[in-house]
Amino acid sequence: MSARPAIELADLKSFVCVVETGSIAQAASRQGVAKSIISRRINRLECVLGATLLVRAPRGTSPTDIGREYYLQAAEGVAQLEQAQEAVGKAVGEVSGPIRVSIPLGIGETFFAPLLADFAKEHPKIQIDLCFEDRADVVAGGFDLAVQAGNLRDSSLITRKLTKVRTVIVASPDYLDMRGRPIDPVDLAEHDVVVDSNCTSQWTLIGTSGCEQVRVNTRLRTNNKHMLLAAARAGVGIVAIPHFMACSLIDSGEIEIVLPDYTHEEVGIHLLVPPSRVKIARVRALMDYLSGNLSVAV
């Protein structure tokens, strides 16, 4: 009885990459090879295992039930191999290798871009692939690390709270002159509100008498903070927005703070890391760097 051929490490890595990115084309781009090479590796792996691991369709590639189970073990194995390689690397020099990162656009441009630039300068052997998007699918996107704001969905990801963001409620003076200035949270129910689609339509406001919750009427919903700010400036309605994004327009008088005696619920900023990536030295280095340099409210 002949022995089963050994599994090629490149085939295993390509399979993991296809599952994480959702397509052979994306996996090829991420690994820097042609799509035909990725397809050949997947076919070879399936032949060795004697099982179909992936379902190929025009809209993307997804794992079969067997493929999903195999991926969970394979991803862990690939991560352990990377840890072993890094253990040798640390003995002879610096941490190295690629890191794929997702960060929300607003806080990413303002706070994280300078930090990541400094981190890249300090670690010249680490290659950072940075995507600015508000709510990435960490596993499907093949991210080693992601930053997300607000309430986190239940998941198996490792999370670490970095800081919190002060939120203010604002509107244009023209809108408030026409519709009136709220003096109590319940007055918000009579106004048009532009809502972040990543948050709920129930706002929590903190005043001298404690917390008050009010459900607002949604005039416009968007997942983009810059659109929220544009809507406030245009007089579409009242908006809850991170203070750092609104402060210059508040100072210039283009928008003004609504209900200044109340504080809007602060938004937590979190790191999310797949369990298989958290022990990899370059990922840990970036986690620790961001935690150490972004530990106060922004």
Automatic annotation (TrEMBL):
Keyword presence, Glycoprotein: no
User: What Gene Ontology biological process does one annotation of this record name?
Assistant: DNA-templated transcription
Q: Name one Pfam family in it.
A: HTH_1
Task: Outline the extent of the HTH lysR-type domain.
Answer: 7-64
Looking up CDD domains in the UniProt record yields:
PBP2_CrgA_like
Q: Which keywords describe this protein according to UniProt?
A: DNA-binding, Transcription, Transcription regulation
InterPro entries, alphabetized: LysR-type_TF_proteobact-type, LysR_HTH_N, LysR_subst-bd, WH-like_DNA-bd_sf, WH_DNA-bd_sf
What's a single GO MF annotation on this record? DNA-binding transcription factor activity
Which domain of life, per UniProt?
Bacteria
Q: Please give the PROSITE patterns that the UniProt record associates with this protein.
A: HTH_LYSR (PS50931)
Similarity comment: family membership = Belongs to the LysR transcriptional regulatory family.
Q: What is this protein called?
A: LysR family transcriptional regulator
